[in-house]
Amino acid sequence: MNYYGVFGNPIAHSKSPLIHRLFAEQSGLQLSYEPLLAPLDGFTEAVSEFFRNGSGANITVPFKEQAFALADQLSERAQRAKAVNTLKKLEDGSLFGDNTDGAGLVNDLLNNHVQIANKSILVLGAGGAVRGILEPLLAQNPKEVCIVNRTVEKAEQLAREFTDLGPMTACGYDWIDAPVDIIINGTSASLSGDLPPLANTLVKAGDTLCYDMMYSKHTTVFNQWAQQQGAALTLDGLGMLVEQAAEAFYVWTGVRPNAAPVLQALRAQL
Ligand code: ATR
Q1: What would the pLDDT profile of 111-140 be if each residue is shown by its tens digit?
Q2: Out of 6, 98, 117, 203, which could bridge 86 as a Cys pair, Cβ 3.0 to 4.6 Å?
Q3: Whose CA is nearest to atom 18 of ligand 1?
Q4: Domains of the chain in sequence order
């Protein structure tokens, strides 16, 4: 039996155990996947204890940066994200750190037939969530990615860090009003039911795709706004959650699960 799990604090409500158990069932693999509550000041100890027998772990809030710091080897996308959401024990016992969040977003967009290449994209927010998606997003060759943030300096900093990977700019909310192809909400505003101060003209009716990296049972405030502006399609982050898990499952087992039926099962349970 191979042991997997997800570290976080809190962790009880994580959907990852269900997702990975469904992937295992689908793939015919015998594995265990449990929620792993680490103390806020004891993440490193909890990880070494787990990996005495464990094969791999997901890492969620608030430990992704600590997981980045303790990994012995890092993927390019994890190095860029400066955060790790997937740890894998290698044969020599060392820990490989990866970040599958951005691949999750990109795969969910592609599943929904959203073309990223040559598109103009606004990414709202400049925190850890946005940092995690930029490398995989830029790898799809968009026309332009503009990071929009209340605190413009943070957007400028991110744009500088990623500009070698593609055309990046940074701006404040009141600098922009021209319509774009894709708007991705990576702010934490949806958590508190807030809407970033967006100009209505950013959405071209029937054309612009809006993606909220958050998800909830009911349409998020950002997606409600997007629908009111006539967005061609609105998506929430549940698909990204399942796809980042699928990518982690692939990193661990070499088996790429089919995310679609698992997403359907999760949506039905919200
Ligand atoms: P996370 O790890 O989820 O990215 P974070 O690093 O705290 O969390 O970043 C939160 C992001 O959401 C920031 O970009 C924040 O903007 P500021 O940097 O200006 O604080 C953004 N954010 C949070 N609430 C917001 C709101 N109501 N409107 C617009 N942006 C908001």
Answers
A1: 999 999 999 999 999 999 999 999 999 999
A2: 98
A3: 151
A4: 2-99+241-269 (3.40.50.10860), 102-236 (3.40.50.720)
Which tokens belong to 245?
A: 């898990």
pTM of the model: 0.96
- Measure 224 CA to ligand 1 centroid, in angstroms: 19
**Is 64 noted as a catalytic residue in this protein?**
yes
> Other CB atoms closer than 10 Å to residue 82's CB: what's the count?
16
CB 208 within 8 A of CB 183: yes
pLDDT digits (tens, 9 = 90+) for 68-95: 999 999 999 999 999 999 999 999 999 9
Instruction: Give the span between the Cα atoms of 14 and 144, in whole angstroms.
Output: 34
Q: How far is the CA of 186 from the centre of ligand 1 (A)?
A: 8
CA distance to 34, 60, 142, per residue, from 13 (Å): 12, 12, 35
User: With a cut of 0.95, is the ipTM above it?
Assistant: yes
On whether the CB atoms of residues 36 and 6 are closer than 8 A, the answer is yes
> Which is nearest to 177 in space by CA: 199, 144, 210, 155?
199
Answer whether 216 contacts ligand 1 (Cβ < 6 A): no
Beta bridge partners of 95: 89
C-beta of 149 in contact with ligand 1 (< 6 A) = yes
